[in-house]
């Protein structure tokens, strides 16, 4: 009769000194704290509304250091009411990915790669993805007079970094803003 062994979940190349045994008997890397050993569900009722806000928009925090102990990621919803535009802003050193859930938001930035700076609008709709590089001044708009736009945002920082600016030009951008 064989003796049952506790499952062993370890990284390739790990040594026994880099492992700890959980109460259930599983060996896991010692550098992973107990809070980060399980998946976390955040239901709509668990979203947090106390985030750094850009004028004209409502953000709801879902995945962050506050909600699930994330160390390098922030994710949440942004609601842009009908006929509304955010303030001009950037998100510091964080990369931002946006998924349009509903509505038809526009994303406005100053394209500086041509002969002259040109204010550029990206019109988006449900199912579209938008990428905002670090420090790029931009604003979100919802030109629809009747329908709210809802987007899901993910950033490469655990908190919602929003640095409001006077304009879309780069004169107000401090690369030390995070």
From TrEMBL:
SUPFAM superfamilies: RmlC-like cupins. Pfam families: Cupin_2. InterPro entries: Bacilysin_H2HPP_isomerase, Cupin_2, RmlC-like_jellyroll, RmlC_Cupin_sf. Residues 79-151 form the Cupin type-2 domain. It comes from the Bacteria. This is Cupin type-2 domain-containing protein.
